[in-house]
Amino acid sequence: MDTLTINKSAIKVNEEGYFTDPSQWNEDIAVEMAKQQNIDLSEKHFEVLHFLRNKYAEEVPLTIRKVGKSGIVDIKEFYKLFPGGPLKISSKIAGIPKPVSCV
């Protein structure tokens, strides 16, 4: 287990950089993590991040298709918001573990 320091907070992450304790997440940390991915978070980004966190809390397996059917964004918009691996990147920024559907 590794530790990331973001905004003076020590965040516990696994070897791939995913939170091991989602309760450590907050929106300020998300903004900083997104900057590392060259993403400036908008209100739409946060809607997706909160959707992912809520589904994770409900123990719903996450897939790109489920996000695309969320009513928040379609799949094309999801790729635009989080280019280069939308579910992997958004999950990391949302402070949840890597979804099983991600390779």
From TrEMBL:
Which InterPro entries does this one have?
DsrC-like_C (IPR042072), DsrC-like_dom_sf (IPR025526), DsrC-like_N (IPR043163), DsrC/TusE (IPR007453)
- Please classify the protein's predominant subcellular localization into one broad category: cytoplasm
Q: Which domain of life is it from?
A: Bacteria
Compartment(s) of residence: Cytoplasm
GO terms under cellular component? cytoplasm
**Which UniProt keywords are present, listed alphabetically?**
Cytoplasm
Return the Gene3D superfamilies for the record: 3.30.1420.10, DsrC-like protein, C-terminal domain
Where along the chain is the active site annotated?
C102
GO biological process: one example? tRNA wobble position uridine thiolation
**Pfam families, per the entry:** DsrC
Query: What SUPFAM superfamilies does the record point to?
Result: DsrC, the gamma subunit of dissimilatory sulfite reductase
GO terms, molecular function: sulfur carrier activity
**Protein family per UniProt:** Belongs to the DsrC/TusE family.
Which protein are we looking at?
TusE/DsrC/DsvC family sulfur relay protein
Q: Taxonomic classification, please?
A: Bacteria, Pseudomonadati, Bacteroidota, Cytophagia, Cytophagales
